[in-house]
Every structure is written in C-alpha cells, then in structure tokens.
Amino acid sequence: MTANIFMGSTEVSRENLSDRISPYSNKVVSRYPNCTKEDTIKALEIAKEASVLCKNSTLAQRIAWLEDVASRLKENLEDIAKTITDEVGKPIYFSRIEVSRAVETIKVSTQVIAGISGHTIPTDIASSGKKTIAFYKRVPVGVVACITPFNFPLNLIIHKIAPALVSGNAVVLKPTPEAPLTAYKICKLFIESPYAIKDALSLVYGDVEVGSTLVSSNIPRVLSFTGSVPVGKIITKNAGIKKVSLELGGNAATFVEKSGDLALAASRCAYGAFYNSGQVCISLQRIYVHDEVYDEFARLLVEETSKLKIGDPYESDTFIGPLINEDAMHRAKGWVESAISEGAVALTGNKIEGNLFYPTIMSEVTDDMNIVCEEAFAPIVSLIKIKSYEEAMSKINNSPYGLQYSIFTNNLSLVSRFIDEADCGGVVINDIPTLRFDVQPYGGVKLSGIGKEGPQFAIEEFTEIKSVVIC
Fold first, then answer.
1. What range defines the domain where residue 455 resides?
2. Residue 290 has what pLDDT?
3. Could you say which DSSP state residue 135 is in?
C-alpha cells in the first residue's frame, strides 16, 4: 500500500516513490512519496494559516477530536499493529502494546490539558507595584514541527502530535522513512475525524532535504525531534530562534547491589536489555554487579536470556525480532568482535542468523570499549564487576549520556543516595531503567537531550506564557 502525503487535510499522491523493505522478510511492505523542499515549504505555509483556526478553536472541540481518534485507533489496533511489524520487524506482541500505549497517550493528553493553566500574580508584592488584576495564561505557540524515529513509529508520533494539537497548534510531521505507512494511517485517523480542525496536520516524508527545511524555517515556533546525537547537534546549530525539544538517546545502566533480589534483577534485566532488540533509548546496556554476587547473577541472567524466543515477529510469543537494517547488524557485530579482540568474553549470543542478531551478554569488558561507552542500539548488554556502591555510581555517571538509570537493592540508605547522585533525567528503584510510563516526564541530561516528553510536559513545551495586567 502506498502511503500518501497530507498537505493539511488534503491527501496528495506522487509518482516518485520509494519502497519500504521489511527487515524480516526482505519484501516490499509499503511505498511512500519522496517529498521535496518545495513540498515541505508548502506544508509549513498551510500549517501557518491553519494555526489561526487551531488557536481559535475551543478546547471542547480539540478534546472531542482526540477522543475520537483514540476510539478509532483502538478499533484498528490489529491492522496498525501488523503495519508496525511489517515495516520495522517489531514482534507483533509488542506492536499491539505500542498501539494500546498510543491510545492511552492520546487519552492522557485530553485529561491533562485542563490542568495546564495560569496563575494570578500579586503585583503589589513589590513596593514599586500597585494592586492590579494580573495573571498569566498559556497559549499555543502556533506551528510545531515534529521529526520521529523508527523504534516506536506510532507512539512517538502520538507523544508529539497529540499534545501539540490538543494545545491548539498546527503540526507538520516528518516521520521515519522506515515506517511511512504507520505514520500515514495514524494521520489519516486524525484528518478524517469529524471533529478535525481543517489543515491542522500535515504529513511529509523525506530525509536530509525535508528535515533541514523544517529545522531552518522561521514558521515553526517549536521543533520536537527524537533521534541521534549527531543529528541533534545539527538541529541545534541550524534551528535559529525557536524552542527545540531533543530526545537523543542514552546509555542506560543499572547497579545490582548485593542485597538486591538477584532472581528479580536477572529476569528484569534480560527484558530490559533485549526488548525491541535493544533498539530503545533506555535499553539496558550496562549492568554493574557487586563482586560478591556477580557469578550468581551472571548465571541467572544467562538462564533468563535463554528463555527469550527469537525469530518470526508475527508469532505472538516471539520476544526478539530483527534489527532494523543490515547496517545495524554489522555495527553490532563489529562492536562485539572488537570487544572480544580486546579481552571481553561473550557469555551468550554473538550470533547472526538471517536478519536476526541473537541476544548477547558480554563480560570482562573495560570502560573504554565502544560496547560500554557508546549507545549500542542492539541486543547487547555488558556485565561489569565492581566492589562498592561508590565505584558503581562513579562508573554509571561516567557517560556523556544521562537518560535513565536504576538500582536493585534492599538498602534504603542507598536508595536515597542513588536518587540524589544519579546524573540522569530519571531513576528507577528495583526495576530496569527501561521502565517508562507514558504519563511521566521523560527526558535526559547531557547528550541525552533537552526538554521533556509525556503529555503534560509536552504541552508545556508546545505552549507559551502570556502575561496580562489589567489596571
């Protein structure tokens, strides 16, 4: 099926198409138009005009719009879940979960918008002031440009466009070229809703030319991007005067302290390291284990990993499907082989079969190996033996990233210290750093990015404060 573009509410076809090849079957599963700079400029101009309608629409209409989309998305769960699996190879079980999460994210956006309010201001608090009616309120920014990645091709779209639209903005979306049909189907649900605001949402496909046009344009007041650090740096350099929200990935770590529940930690760490084939910004990549429990934990982790089914993503009990493309496969394989050549040991995995990269547990790694210090974005996790909490904390924080970290411990004093000392955007106690609830604030520090996702916090990103004084 061809995924057309949307110039506002108008669906437009093109003859110049690209194929999307399934990373599992190597068959064409969708096609999408190759948009141009001119297409992107037109979409932005349409959004600029539509932003007036969006701003003047009632909150009741926008909530009804999103509620209608959530209902229709739920009705189409199986179709859209299969589309996700077709395009990115995500196991169907997790594709269904992603659609369900997207429904919840839309609903939460409608629930929290009423709480994004202003406050009255006592201007006579200053001796130079006087009694007035003074307050501020939040207003839509106008136009929001959104750029999304492949690993959650539906829910990450929703995390951007649902808060942006319910706030009264117009949106131009550039989704990943790896999942064009997924983006088309969700945009179609928004645009065909009887409650839709005319031309409030546009959809364009493309790579560097389209992306750079969105970034450099003066029309968007906010640019929301999820992707790699190198692209994030380019965006920051070229965005000009606009708000930029960047979610750029991480190098998630956990500390398994000697008082922690080892069986629980091993089970959850296997999940966190290999969920979505490790293609998650908060995928568990580094596990620091106290030396007194290291051997037992390593044994349990290997045992738990052996239970994970690898293979056909259309089978409901498959846990690990293919990596997104051959480049990702070769990169992961190269990092493992490089680490082994420097003395590391693969306890399990380090195997490619067709388009599948088997879950790999590495030990005897050192801090300077790419497999530890860079974001792997593959089903690879490293075990590092340490002697103390202080050593673990020093190594965990010694990263250019800072998205989410966790600790497994029954020592309450260490819990308190970890919350304060972990240099990251989010901490998790007695579970994996891969744990995320869509309602929570989500975003990191250092190279992990700027700004926060989660409906309430995204709405704050997509609105501006207007101050009012009535004398």
1. 5-248+448-470
2. 98
3. E
* Cα–Cα distances in angstroms (integers) from residue 276 to residues 2, 139, 262, 305, in the given order: 26, 37, 23, 14
* CB crowding 406-442: b at 16 or more within 10 Å, else e: bbbbeeeebbeebeebbebbbbbebbbbbbbebbeeb
Asked if residue 443 is part of any domain, the answer here is: no
Tokens of 425: 């955007």
Residues with catalytic roles: 247, 281
Does one domain contain both 302 and 414?
A: yes
Cβ partners under 8 Å of residue 181, min gap 6: 1, 3, 20, 29, 30, 32, 83, 86, 87
pLDDT tens for 254-301 read 999 999 999 999 999 999 999 999 999 999 999 999 999 999 999 999
Residues 6 or more apart whose CB falls under 8 angstroms from that of 371 comprise 335, 336, 338, 339, 344, 362, 365, 380, 382
- What stretches of 57-122 show up as alpha helix (H) in DSSP? 59-75, 77-88, 92-112
Q: What are phi and psi of 156, to 5 degrees?
A: -75, -30
Lookup: tokens for 11: 């669906």
Question: Do 210 and 284 belong to one domain?
Answer: no
Q: Are strands 380-386 and 284-290 parallel, antiparallel or unpaired?
A: parallel
- 63 vs 335, residue with greater confidence: 63
Asked whether residue 126 is domain-assigned, the answer is yes
Q: Can you give the CATH number for the domain in which 108 is found?
A: 3.40.605.10
Q: What CA–CA distances, in Å, run from 301 to 149, 314, 392? A: 30, 26, 19
- Whether residue 279 sits in one domain with residue 243: no
Task: Return the SS3 of 418.
Answer: helix
